[in-house]
């Protein structure tokens, strides 16, 4: 369980009456305060009782209800639904390798919510495949476990979890869905400790990219969550434009014969006629550039003379030339076939943040001040493309 909630935003009614309360008394303890909430209860839906089978593949909704967490106050709550095929919501045990839980993307502000059956179906299918070497669970009767996660401040990752309920008889069907996220994993990525999330190519619906360093004769896998398990056999279109020397690895992954930095671009496109996802896997030369104000007002693509210098290994920092102008940082990785703004990124909270907005004017004006990085003459950009840490100094 994560940290217990300590702060909250007062509802409008509370804000309206606060001045009156303050005027009447200087006793701050008389004002409403948010207590630590340690638990709340998710009710078992009727579908989970008896021997009825709940067919998620048919797209029906699942109605869930709960009591609001007791914060000692009626606080605004955002609920997320989490699903697992393991009642303990655990991961990587010897008996249940790869089983985890998935948090559905939809959120709810009511303690009575109708959960999309199709979203549940796809989550359960993926969980089953992750723990059964990609096997198709279509038609299998299996138990599914659900819990809620409650947030008061949805922006700071502060939450509490409900109890777990069981749907004892559930059926799912595999349906090919365009990936919305893509990850890479392997010994050369984050020292093999965790998967790396790729960025989405802006303006595309099914392309992803990032920069990696690959040690010679090591392999990587890819997939649409952080248990990336797709390998060489899953690739329909292989384009080794970066001359990595790609082949099938002994572990089923994509093996790199040649050590070095590479831009990886992956497309996951649905083949509806065959109900499957067709993957394109590309390596490209490692090219990253600053552009615009910091590059002396140069908006050419590529910005000749403004390329970042690559380090010799995954732990090193890429470094830009000294900025010759002041203004907002604009930086991108160059992938042939796309203009620079499709593969642009900025720095947000010390990490790479891939462009996901229509920047008509600037990051500051069109995305928000927190996503805008100010540059001064003489500074440089430093990026670790393995950890995604970045800074201007």
Topology (SSEs and partners):
Layout: H1 12-24, E1 54-55, E2 62-65, E3 78-84, E4 101-108, E5 112-115, H2 117-131, E6 142-151, E7 160-161, E8 165-171, E9 183-186, E10 196-197, E11 199-200, E12 207-214, E13 218-223, E14 235-240, E15 246-248, E16 254-256, E17 260-271, E18 276-284, E19 288-290, E20 318-319, E21 327-328, E22 331-333, E23 344-348, E24 351-354, H3 363-366, E25 374-375, E26 381-384, E27 389-392
Parallel strand pairs: 1-8, 14-18
Antiparallel strand pairs: 2-5, 3-4, 3-6, 6-7, 6-8, 9-10, 9-13, 11-12, 12-17, 13-16, 15-16, 17-18, 19-22, 20-26, 21-25, 22-23, 23-24, 26-27
Class inferred from helices and paired strands: mainly beta
Radius of gyration: 24 Å
Helix content: under 10%
Encode the helix/strand succession as letters: HEEEEEHEEEEEEEEEEEEEEEEEEEHEEE
Mean pLDDT metric: 86
Poorly predicted runs of 5 or more residues: 1-34, 92-97
The largest β sheet comes out as: 6 strands, mixed
Using the alpha-carbon principal axes, give the shape. globular
Distance between the termini: 37 Å
Strand fraction band? 25-35%
Number of helices: 3
User: What's the β-strand tally?
Assistant: 27
Could you explain how this protein is built, in words?
The chain is mainly beta and 393 residues long. The protein is built from three helices and 27 strands. It has helices spanning 12-24, 117-131, 363-366, and strands at residues 54-55, 62-65, 78-84, 101-108, 112-115, 142-151, 160-161, 165-171, 183-186, 196-197, 199-200, 207-214, 218-223, 235-240, 246-248, 254-256, 260-271, 276-284, 288-290, 318-319, 327-328, 331-333, 344-348, 351-354, 374-375, 381-384, 389-392. The strands form seven sheets. Strands 1, 3, 4, 6, 7 and 8 form a six-stranded mixed sheet that branches. Strands 10-9-13-16-15 form a five-stranded antiparallel sheet, with no helix packed on it. The radius of gyration is 24 Å and the shape is globular. 35% of the residues are buried. Residues 1-34 and 92-97 have low confidence and may be disordered.
């Amino acid at each position: 369980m994560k940290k217990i909630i300590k702060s909250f935003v007062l509802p409008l009614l509370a804000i309206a009456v606060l001045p009156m309360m303050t005027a009447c008394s200087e006793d701050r303890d008389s004002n409403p305060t948010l207590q630590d909430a340690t638990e709340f209860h998710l009710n078992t839906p009727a579908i989970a009782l008896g021997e009825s089978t709940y067919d998620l593949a048919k797209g029906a909704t699942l109605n869930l209800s709960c009591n609001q967490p007791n914060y000692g106050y009626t606080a605004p709550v955002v609920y997320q639904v989490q699903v697992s095929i393991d009642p303990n919501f655990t991961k990587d045990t010897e008996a249940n390798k790869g089983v985890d839980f998935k948090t559905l993307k939809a959120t709810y502000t009511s303690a009575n919510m109708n959960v999309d059956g199709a979203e549940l179906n796809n989550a359960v299918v993926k969980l089953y495949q992750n723990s059964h070497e990609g096997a198709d669970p279509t038609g299998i009767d299996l138990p599914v476990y659900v819990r809620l996660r409650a947030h008061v401040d949805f922006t700071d990752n502060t939450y509490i979890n409900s109890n777990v309920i069981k749907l004892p008889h559930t059926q799912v069907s595999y349906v090919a869905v365009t990936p919305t996220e893509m990850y890479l994993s392997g010994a050369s990525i984050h020292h093999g400790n965790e998967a790396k999330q790729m960025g989405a190519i802006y303006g595309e619906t099914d392309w992803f990219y990032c920069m990696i360093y690959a040690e010679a004769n090591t392999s990587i896998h890819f997939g649409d969550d952080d248990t990336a398990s797709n390998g060489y056999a899953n690739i329909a279109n292989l384009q080794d434009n970066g001359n990595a020397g790609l082949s099938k690895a002994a572990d089923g992954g994509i093996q790199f014969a040649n050590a070095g930095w590479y831009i990886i671009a992956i497309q996951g496109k649905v083949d509806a006629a065959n109900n499957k996802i067709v993957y394109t896997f590309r390596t490209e030369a490692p090219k990253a550039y600053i552009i615009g104000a910091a590059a002396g007002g140069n908006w050419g693509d590529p910005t000749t003379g403004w390329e970042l210098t690559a380090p010799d290994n995954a732990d090193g920092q890429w470094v830009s030339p000294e900025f010759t102008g002041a203004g907002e940082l604009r930086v991108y990785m160059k992938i042939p076939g796309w203009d620079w703004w499709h593969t642009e990124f900025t720095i947000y909270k010390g990490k790479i943040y891939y462009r996901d907005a229509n920047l008509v004017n600037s990051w500051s004006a069109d995305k928000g001040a927190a996503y805008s990085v100010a540059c001064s003459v003489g500074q440089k950009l430093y990026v670790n493309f393995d950890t995604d840490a970045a800074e201007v100094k």
